[in-house]
Amino acid sequence: MIAPSILSADFSRLGDEIRGVADAGAEVIHVDVMDGHFVPNITIGPLVVKAVRAVTDLPVDVHLMISDPDRYLKEFADAGADWITVHVEACTHLHRTLRCIRDLGKKAGAVLNPATSLSTLDYVLEEVDLVMLMSVNPGFGGQSFIESSLEKTRELRRRLDAVNPEAGIEIDGGVSPQTIGRIAEAGANIFVAGSAIYGHSDYRAVIARLKELAGF
Ligand code: DX5
Ligand code: ZN
């Protein structure tokens, strides 16, 4: 699945920017929520998620880069998120948080920063619908892909296959025509792309190219 990140969209024309990628073959809309505390940037909250929800039938993938995400899970669920992903670095009670997301009727995802070990997921691998690996340090679009994410993806696929083979692997950061082939080959199946899509003048062409290079 290709998941354009609206972080790189033109926010003065957000509705058009979402319809534009949906019409061009996107399968998920990725929304980056940043609080200026967990990450050094501030973006958007439930109000914008609600606006995104109103203009598309695609799944809305809410990436919470916020401290203490438990406080806001219900608000984002009510705003129309379909998937809610939380950073393991921000969750004191990760197991409880993942259960809470599922209890709200949403798909639950755990996210790891580039420096965070896969072992942090050892006891929650069956509690997730997907795991997202950050392949840049979170906070900004347009950064370079961190190569060690490839081996991490391969190892994560092995671990999930053993206990939860249905779970997806989403990669976020530096996904582009230059990197997506290797990321797909490593075992990821959901690809977030911000600048590679919204920085391109022809959304249809770039999404088709990304899908072709990913092998689907
Ligand atoms: C970074 C965000 C990403 C970002 C990716 O903190 O989580 O979703 O939009 O941007 P690109 O695809 O430009 O690396
Ligand atoms: Zn993201």
From TrEMBL:
The cofactor named in the record is: Co(2+); Mn(2+); Zn(2+); a divalent metal cation
The active site annotation covers D32 (proton acceptor), D172 (proton donor)
Gene Ontology cellular-component annotations: cytoplasm
Q: Which Gene3D superfamilies match?
A: Aldolase class I
Write out the residues that bind substrate. Answer: S5, H63, G139, F140, G141, G142, D172, G173, G174, G194, S195
In terms of PROSITE patterns, this protein maps to: RIBUL_P_3_EPIMER_1
Cite the EC number.
5.1.3.1
Question: Which catalytic reaction applies to this protein?
Answer: D-ribulose 5-phosphate = D-xylulose 5-phosphate
Q: Where does a divalent metal cation bind?
A: H30, D32, H63, D172
Gene Ontology biological process terms from the UniProt entry? pentose catabolic process; pentose-phosphate shunt
Which keywords does this chain's UniProt record carry?
Answer: Carbohydrate metabolism, Cobalt, Isomerase, Manganese, Metal-binding, Zinc
Pathway recorded for this protein: Carbohydrate degradation
Coiled-coil boundaries: none
Q: What is the stated purpose of this protein?
A: Catalyzes the reversible epimerization of D-ribulose 5-phosphate to D-xylulose 5-phosphate.
Record-given protein name? Ribulose-phosphate 3-epimerase
What's the name of its gene? rpe
